[in-house]
Amino acid sequence: TYRSIETLRKTEDTVVEIVESLLDGKRYIKKIYHSDKRAAYNSLKQIKNPYIPQIYEVFFGEDTIVIEEYVTGETLGALIDRKCDFPPDAVKKIINCLINAVSELHHNNIIHRDIKPSNIIIRPNGEVVLIDLRYYRQTVSELVKQEGFDNILVCYSCANFLTDTNLMLLR
Q1: Model pTM?
Q2: Spatial CA neighbour of 129 closest among 64, 68, 46, 41
Q3: What's residue 144's pLDDT?
């Protein structure tokens, strides 16, 4: 069981909280989706990647409840807003970590769809973590099936240094 510490976001569809486990005293992120997120979270729970928050528990019922790793650090967006200097090696590290995270997601047929500086956390030790999969929408295979494409080319474009990611489907 968990004790709520702080509500980070509450919408008609989702509640996101920082919670504390009554068993181990550690902090976690608890997400409550008022919809079925079974497909994505069954895949996400299997992923073990240092650049993606670990999913510890998923409960399916009327709501989908997810307990995931609480990632400490500062968002890349906050660092950019503070005009922090990013030497070339730091930029390369950030990009390489993001490529690794996105590659792992795509390998598991998950599209992030909201990659932006505020969804990238730099841990105190310098590790990079891609957070906030609430806009994942669908797996690639589900999208292809739903849209009825026989042949599909999926292109990703990043503009303004990862601030605007777009998914384009070309027939």
Answers
A1: 0.77
A2: 68
A3: 57
